[in-house]
Design a protein that fits this description.
21% helix, 35% strand, Thiol Ester Dehydrase, Chain A, alpha+beta
Length: 142
C-alpha cells in the first residue's frame, strides 16, 4: 500500500548524453513526490521551513537503478513507506514506467527532526509528522 502516487513525463532536460535519465533526477522526482504528499496532507512547508518549531532536513539518500528511462517516458513515482526512528525517519520510493510498470528505481531518504532554536535532534519525532507518514508515534523514554 502506497502513501502517495504521482505521475510525470520525462523532459528533455532530464536526460544525459547517453539519452537516459541523469541519475540525480531520480532523487529529484522522489523529493518532489514527497513534498506533494506532505502538502496534500495539509503540512504548510513554506511556513514550517521559515518559522516552525522544527525542521526535517534530509541527512541521507540512496538509490538503486533498475532500468533506464528516456525522454518522453511517463513514470509513476510512489512514496511507498516510511519507517520511524527515535528522532529520524526513512521514506522509501519506487519509480516505475507507467506503460508497463517496469521498476526503474528504488530509493530512500532519511530525514532528521531538528529543533529550530538549538539545531539539535529532537528527542522524538513530531506527532503531526508521525500521523501524516502513518508512523507509530514513539513513546517518550522515562
Amino acid at each position: 500500500m502506497a502513501l502517495y502516487r504521482t505521475f510525470r513525463k520525462i523532459r528533455l532536460q532530464d536526460v544525459d548524453a547517453a539519452g537516459i535519465v541523469f541519475f540525480p533526477k531520480f532523487l529529484e522526482y522522489c523529493h518532489d513526490a514527497y513534498f506533494e504528499f506532505l502538502e496534500q496532507e495539509g503540512l504548510d512547508l513554506a511556513a514550517g521551513i521559515s518559522s516552525g518549531p522544527y525542521i526535517l532536513p534530509l541527512v541521507h539518500a540512496e538509490a538503486d537503478f533498475r532500468a533506464p528511462l528516456r525522454f518522453g517516458d511517463e513514470v509513476e513515482v510512489i512514496v511507498a513507506t516510511a519507517v520511524a526512528g527515535q528522532s529520524s525517519y526513512t521514506v522509501r520510493y519506487l519509480v516505475r514506467k507507467r506503460a508497463d510498470q517496469t521498476l526503474c528505481c528504488e530509493a530512500s531518504t532519511v530525514h532528521a527532526a531538528i529543533e529550530r532554536t538549538t539545531f539539535k535532534p529532537m528527542k522524538e519525532l513530531p506527532e503531526r509528522v508521525c500521523a501524516i507518514l502513518k508512523l507509530q508515534y514513539p513513546q517518550a523514554k522515562p
